[in-house]
Amino acid sequence: MKKQNTKTSDKIPCANCNEELNSDTDDDDKKNIGCDFCDKWYHKKCTNLIGTPYHIAAIQDYKCDKC
């Protein structure tokens, strides 16, 4: 199953837009997606998964553009 960034004490920026990632959102496009090939995290809206429902994106392998 796809990992989700749930740390609340560490402020981790999106590797694409540098805005803070937020795990506590109901907006699917603002939820976080981690690359399965490196340690980078992204807003779903900052990936090619925009438009894909989060519950589907979360179980797919994601490979960021840098990998």
UniProtKB/TrEMBL annotation:
Residue ranges occupied by any PHD-type domain in the UniProt entry: 11-67
InterPro entries: Zinc_finger_PHD-type_CS, Znf_FYVE_PHD, Znf_PHD-finger, Znf_RING/FYVE/PHD
MF annotations from Gene Ontology: zinc ion binding
Keyword Signal among record annotations: no
Family matches, as PROSITE patterns: ZF_PHD_1 (PS01359), ZF_PHD_2 (PS50016)
Signal peptide: none
Keywords per UniProt: Metal-binding, Zinc, Zinc-finger
Keyword Zinc in record: yes
Classification via SUPFAM superfamilies: FYVE/PHD zinc finger
Protein name, as recorded: PHD-type domain-containing protein
Organism: Rhamnusium bicolor
